[in-house]
Amino acid sequence: MRIYHPFGPLYNENSRVLILGSFPSVKSREQEFFYGHPQNRFWKVMAAIFGAPVPQTIEEKKALILDNGLALWDSIGSCEITGSSDASIKNAEPNDLRIITGSCDIRAIYCNGKKSLEVYNRYIEPVLGRPAEALPSTSPANAAWNLERLTEAWAVVKDNLL
Fold it and tell me: For position 59, which CATH number holds?
């Protein structure tokens, strides 16, 4: 069964770095917001990079992203998926990122994990003509990377804002 992305991108005119997930998890789809599973380390990593408290509410999460010049969305706009597993994704249709890149000065694009980059490289880069770089997934399924290693790898996001 095809599932459609249930919420739009998060960005504003000050966004300079775009972070792309693959497709929202079951928890994220329920909350209609990014990285909703409590075991996903995305919010802990972002808080560590920017020296902020870990956001708890959706409003705090939005503020952390927008106040630091970031934009969030996902590479995939619709797909067939079992649960939250990227490995189960089939028949992916990409999101049109021009809605973001046409509205703000995006200087770098990072994909949260390999599936996001795979979809980006296949469907989105040919349209945008801009490369993206994969960062290690913040998903709990990526157990090989602890929070400290993830934070070190993801620090490049902040470096591209300077």
Answer: 3.40.470.10
Q: Which of 95, 76, 72, 74 lies closest to 15 in space, CA to CA?
A: 72
Domain count, the chain: 1
| pTM beyond 0.85 | yes
Q: Classify burial at 45, counting beta carbons within 10 Å of its beta carbon; exposed 0-12, middle 13-18, buried 19 or more.
A: buried
What is the span of the domain harbouring residue 18?
A: 2-156
pLDDT tens digits, one per residue of 3-41: 999 999 999 999 999 999 999 999 999 999 999 999 999
Query: Is residue 161 one of the residues assigned to a domain?
Result: no
Residue 23 placed within a domain: yes
Could you tell me the strand order of the sheet in which 90-94 lies? Answer: 2-4, 76-80, 90-94
What pLDDT, on a 0 to 100 scale, did the predictor assign at position 160?
83
Task: List all residues 6 or more positions away from 79 whose beta carbon is below 8 Å from its beta carbon.
Answer: 2, 3, 23, 89, 90, 91, 92, 93
Is residue 162 assigned to a domain? Answer: no
Output the average pLDDT for the chain.
96
Q: How far apart are CA 112 and CA 42, in angstroms?
A: 9
